[in-house]
Amino acid sequence: MSTSHESHHAPVDGAGGPSTTGHEWDGIQELNNPLPRWWLWTFYATIIWAFGYWVAYPAWPLVSNYTSGVLGWNSRSAVVEQISDLQKLRAASSAKLANVPLEDIEKNPELLSLARAEGKVAFADNCAPCHGAGGGGAKGFPNLNDDDWLWGGTLAQIQQTITHGIRSGDDEGHQGNMLAFGSILSKADISNVADYVRSLSGAAPGDTPAAKKGAEIFAANCATCHGENGKGNQELGSKNLTDGIWLYGGDKATIVQTITNGRGGVMPAWGPRLSPTTIKALTVYVHTLGGGQ
Amino acid sequence: MTSAALKPEKSPKAPAVPDEEPLYAARRAIYPQSVHGRLRTTKWVLLILTLGIYYLLPFVRWDRGPNAPDQAVLIDFPTRRFYFFFIEIWPQEFYYVAGLLILAALILFLMNAVAGRVWCGYLCPQTVWTDLFLTVERWIEGDRREHMKSDAGPWTLEKVTKKVLKHSVWLLIAWWTGGAWVLYFADAPTLVKELVTFQGSTVAYASIAVLTFTTYTLAGHMREQVCTYMCPWPRIQAALTDEYALNVTYRYDRGEPRGSVKKAALAREAGRKAGDCVDCNQCVNVCPTGVDIREGMQLACIQCGLCIDACNNIMDKINRPRGLIAYESEANLEARIAGKPPVRRIVRARTVLYAALIAFIGLGMLYTLVGRSDEGIAAIHDRNPVFVRLSDGSLRNAYTIRLINKKLEDRRFQLSVDGLPGAQLSVVGVESGTDGEVISIGPDQTREVRVLVTHQGKLASGASIPVTFRIRDMVTGATASTADHFIGP
Q1: Facing residues of B467 across strands?
Q2: Sequence-ordered list of residues with C-beta below 8 angstroms from that of A248, at least 6 positions apart, any chain
Q3: A131 is in an annotated binding site
Q4: 3-state secondary structure (DSSP) of residue B415
Q5: Could you give the CA distance from residue B1 to residue B3 in angstroms, rounded to a whole number?
Q6: For residues B349 and B140, what is the distance between their CA atoms, to the nearest angstrom?
Q7: Residues of B numbered 214-273 whose beta carbons fall under 8 angstroms of chain A's beta carbons: which are they?
Q8: Looking at chain B, which residues constitute the CATH 2.60.40.10 domain(s)?
Q9: Which of A133, A278, B277, B334 is a Cys-bridge partner for B255, taking CB atoms 3.0 to 4.6 Å apart?
Q10: From the CA of A196, how many Å to the nearest CA of chain B?
Q11: E strand or H helix at B88
Q12: Is B415's pLDDT higher than 90?
């Protein structure tokens, strides 16, 4: 190539190299390396794809609605479909759980892990807000890991409690309240009973005059439900006062408050909300947290 | 162009006539000519070796005894196992795969430090399959000249027949490539039987379809464009190379000035310098990516060395020494031009470092692989609640413990806890017998159990006592242990 011929060509980078675009900044020239044409066509294809997408799927917001797309797809129906797929997938394992008696599930390692896995998820969804993520409980909400049960810790008792609840309005649910003694007993009497109750679990000395007075008041007013020796009664959901485990707190002020105003925590009935299989799984899960009897 | 020529000359400072060059360029058809030579033979050997391994490996059997697949290489997704001859990788041992990837990267770096992009030229799947597809193309449509002539000419029945035949063979190869891929994920003979009787899974058919399409497109149609536009390796390689790396290089000091054999002979007689390059363009014609190696190192060059073979053949014919194009380092080229002794430095900081790292990681992996046990235990302490006070005043901690049995037979393990004298251990769902808590696990399986540890005595406030969970095989006595803590209020 002669120089005169080259003069009306774009400048070239070195011998035989690609031409430059002619743009120059501080002596740096931009090479003109054309993109491959298929690249351009790929770009056009994505644009066409975008138009197709607008038509096929929900895409554009309108004043009070949105374009729904000719495919009729929406995320809500997609979720419904996925859940039904999941249920189909789980049908076999759910059937296994449903057909085996509650007492036999824990004897079978496969069923046990199945029930615990399902129970864990159901617990997190439904029970954790009150009982805590690991069933550790909170003030007024029993710790499900220990061996202290208000209404009983056998599989059947746990299943009954979950299904029908406590003071839930369900006819078969557990009833029974801790009465408010504020209008029945004097403040001094309540204080004495509180001292006695604390002595039952060894939290306070039992040989003080106050505790001795409290023992008499206890026998007259509290023993009906809590038993003469304060061991409680699971039929009534009355608490065992001799162990060191407290639902609302074991300090004197809290006990005085409990005696004065009474207690009556509510657990909802889960029978109407959860499937029998799920309740079964939940029962096994709670039972195997460690306190199961 | 003509109108531009009539305009007055522009100053060199503003030379812009950029619109003459297109922004987008259609692909320039490349018709690489066949070539014979040492490097071509090497490529043939590697092609047969690598493709042979790829296509046939799934059919190699490896007896692992009962309860285990007998396929030598198997990626078993349903049971989450990876089998490689005598090695069985569990999901939690995925670090071996990570290690292999790191090794692969380092080996690539080492290859690059020693001899440039040899990976690209000889072993890269894109190169190997493109080479195979080119061979089919040459076999059906003829070598460079014949093929070019046919493509430029009118559509005849013969041309159509050849094109149809070529694409059919390509699709067949592509289909078999996809087919071989899925065989790595299931028992190969069974899957083949299922596939031909249309009993195979949708995933298998879809995978084959996708891989057929990509193989056909990438090796048949995209070819060098994958290397030039899509592959990141040329860019990375450019950042990793140095002046001692061997690259396919045109020795311009020997080749220039170019000229015909006659002109060169005349020039030499007259005592003038004459290059060995006779401008025969053979190096360009044989190049599968269509570059001219005489322009120096460039991005599109995959360094397959076919131009070396082509040039050597010409040099032999014109009785000039071979190696006008050769694997040559920048440093050696410069040394030769400066009249200094040749430079060959394969042992240098980066190659030593790469080799040391490869050896270190490789030996480390080997060491852990050899020292692997057939049983394992892992524990997670309950976080919420961390501990529980029982009605009798004792303290209890709960753990989720997973036991691993890598042997291909049922095993029974005795579980015990050390570090907390007097503590009682119980496993949910397991009856306590005379041997204590004995947990059975099926072959090649894991089992998760909930373990409760109860302590009667008093603990210091805020106690966190180190404990060790231990399992012991009831038959062989093999043990495994894991450390955790017993926590008090």
Answers
A1: B484
A2: A139, A140, A254, A257, A258, A263
A3: yes
A4: strand
A5: 5
A6: 49
A7: 225, 229
A8: 375-487
A9: B277
A10: 19
A11: strand B87-89
A12: yes
The pairing of strands B24-25 and A35-36 is parallel
Whole-angstrom distance, CA of residue B233 vs CA of residue A107: 58
Helices A187-200/A209-221 angle, 10° precision: 100
Q: Indicate yes or no: CB of A39 within 8 angstroms of CB of B229.
A: yes
Kindly list the structural domains of chain A, giving each domain's residue range(s) and its CATH number in brackets, ordered by start.
37-67 (no CATH), 76-173+267-290 (1.10.760.10), 187-261 (1.10.760.10)
Contact A143 B388 (CB under 8 A): yes
Residue B422 vs residues A74, A116, B438, B456: alpha-carbon distances, Å: 60, 29, 19, 7
Kindly provide the ipTM of the predicted complex, given to two decimals. Answer: 0.78
Token pair in block for residue B347: 């042992």
CATH superfamily label, B375-487: Immunoglobulins (2.60.40.10)
Question: Distance, in angstroms, between A10 CA and closest chain B CA?
Answer: 5
pTM of the model: 0.75
Smallest Cβ distance to B25: which of A11, A37, A244? A37
CB-CB contact of B425 with B450 (8 Å): no
Q: Which of A35, A106, A133 is closest, CB to CB, to B429? A: A106
Percentage, residues of chain B above pLDDT 70: 96
Please judge whether A16 and B295 are an interchain contact, meaning their C-beta atoms are less than 8 angstroms apart. yes
Spell out which residues of chain B touch residue A9, defining contact as CB-CB under 8 Å.
Answer: 17, 20
Chain position carrying tokens 């298929």:
A38
Nearest CB neighbour to B391, from listed A106, A135, A146: A146
Q: In one letter, which amino acid is B104?
A: A
Q: Is residue B430 packed enough to be buried (19+ CB in 10 Å), middle (13-18) or exposed (0-12)?
A: buried
Answer whether A95 touches B (CB < 8 Å).
no
Task: Tell whether A38 is within 8 A of chain B (Cβ).
Answer: yes
What is the secondary structure of B420-458 as a DSSP string?
STT-EEEETT---BTTBEEEEE-TTEEEEEEEEEEE-S-
Query: Which residues in A lie closer than 8 A to residue B27 (C-beta atoms)?
Result: 36-38
Give the helix ranges, DSSP H, for B183-227. 188-196, 202-215, 224-225
Q: B432 versus B419: which is more confidently predicted? A: B419
DSSP chain A: --HHHHTTSPPBSSTT-PBEEEEEETTEEEE--PEEHHHHHHHHHHHHHHHHHHHHS---B-SSSB---TT---HHHHHHHHHHHHHHHHHHHHHHHHHS-HHHHTTSHHHHHHHHHHHHHHHHHHTHHHH-TTS--BTTB--SSSS--SS--SHHHHHHHHHH-BSSS-TTSB---BPP-TTTS-HHHHHHHHHHHHHHTTSS-S-SHHHHHHHHHHHHHTHHHH-TTS--BTTTTBPP-SSS--SS--SHHHHHHHHHH-B---B---TTTS-HHHHHHHHHHHHTTTT--
Q: Are B365 and B98 in contact (CB under 8 A)?
A: no
Report the chain B residue with the minimal C-alpha distance to residue A115: B429
